[in-house]
Design goal:
Elements: E1 3-7, E2 11-16, E3 19-26, E4 31-38, E5 44-48, E6 52-53, H1 55-63, E7 68-71, E8 77-81, H2 89-100, H3 102-130, H4 137-155, H5 159-177, H6 198-220, H7 239-245, H8 249-262, E9 271-273, E10 280-282, H9 287-299, E11 302-303, E12 310-311, H10 313-330
Parallel strand pairs: 1-5, 2-6, 5-7
Antiparallel strand pairs: 2-3, 3-4, 7-8, 9-10, 11-12
Helix pairs in contact: 2-10, 3-4, 3-5, 3-8, 4-5, 6-7, 6-8, 6-10
């Protein structure tokens, strides 16, 4: 169990010798369910909402190098609590220099968006092949358009141009992706903050969980997560973490969401409407279904290329962070994940 998920305000967690003791309170039935998890099984912790965690346990996570991610009750990334494993001020100084270097920032942004568009195209190709739709005109048009936009990225001369190409390509992608969602939980268009339907709810939720892992990897490498190359700098925005999320949105986030919905692991009854903001969210009790499948996705080995080494998505995240480090320290052009 590499990740411990502590979900909701009705959960208490404390340190019990070499184990995490968990109490789950069911106030409707006046019942308490208790469980324990060995500390040596935990690689990371995700806190969702406002569970009660003792200070002793939080200290233990820090002392033993276990990162803790904080998410809002609706799954928005909030922050991370990480061990001080890397104090490389020189690396951050080089990162600041690279971010101020328009040419270097443009190279990184172009590589990120090339990888994103290329991966979106591969996702559509894989989905269509599974349904024997590869020869359909609407499929061919979408894939040809994405191929054209991936080539245009290399000719872009400014960051606004790169962002513009990404926006147009994403619109093409989502129009075609809509055909692969189940009829009972359709996808019409991308919306968020809040998501207005179950399809967007699971997409936003998945992106937030992946973003938390990327943010932790960025911080553990001694990089500043708020200083990226593609996303503009804004107070509190983890721009670099968002940068590195882009190539993984389609091959990780979108395919996982589609798998959950199309195989009916998550159904309409697993979502709820929030009257306060009008959004649709994954129910608290349904998150276990998501996290079970998410862990399988993150730990599954696959070959990055034919005959290439086998990796997991967690290894992919570390590789992309290392690519940023090599760019800012050795001037090496970064290469980001390309879906096989």
């Amino acid at each position: 169990m590499p990740t411990l998920y502590i979900n909701g305000q009705d959960v208490e967690a404390r340190l019990d010798d070499r184990r995490v003791a968990l109490n789950h309170f069911d106030y409707t039935k006046d019942d308490i369910k208790s469980s324990t998890v060995p500390l040596f099984d935990i690689e990371r912790v995700v806190l969702i909402g406002y569970p009660k965690i003792t200070m002793q346990l939080q200290h233990h996570f820090i002392y033993h190098g276990i990162p803790v991610f904080f998410l809002s009750p609706h799954g928005r990334w909030v922050s991370s609590m990480l061990p001080n494993t890397n104090g490389s001020a020189f690396r951050r100084l080089r990162q600041y220099d690279a971010a101020r270097n328009d040419h270097q920032a443009l190279i990184a942004a172009k590589q990120l968006i090339y990888a994103k568009i290329r991966n979106m195209r591969r996702v559509l190709q894989r989905l269509a092949a599974n349904r024997e739709q590869s020869a359909e005109p609407v499929q061919q048009d979408a894939c040809n358009s994405l191929l054209e936009y991936s080539r245009k990225v290399h000719d872009a001369e400014t960051l606004p141009s790169v962002r513009g190409i990404e926006g147009i390509a994403s619109a093409v992608y989502f129009r075609r992706l809509a055909a692969f969602f189940p009829e009972e939980l359709p996808f019409v268009s991308r919306n968020r903050r809040p998501p207005r339907d179950a399809a967007n709810a699971i997409l936003s939720w998945t992106y937030a969980i992946v973003m938390a892992e990327i943010d932790a990897a960025v911080r553990c490498a001694g990089l500043d997560p708020c200083l990226g190359f593609l996303h503009e700098i804004s107070y509190g925005r983890p721009s670099l973490s968002l940068d590195l999320l882009e190539p993984l949105r389609a091959p990780l986030g979108d395919l996982l969401a589609l798998n959950l919905l199309n195989h009916k692991l998550l159904r309409k009854e697993h979502f709820e409407n929030n009257p306060e903001d009008g959004g649709v969210y994954l129910k608290k009790e349904s998150r276990k279904i998501f996290f079970t499948e998410y862990e399988l996705y993150m730990e599954r080995f696959f070959a990055e290329s034919k005959g290439g080494s086998r990796v997991t998505f967690r290894r992919v995240i570390r590789n992309m962070v290392n690519a940023v480090c090599e760019m800012i320290e050795a001037g090496k052009e970064p290469k980001f994940f390309l879906m096989p």
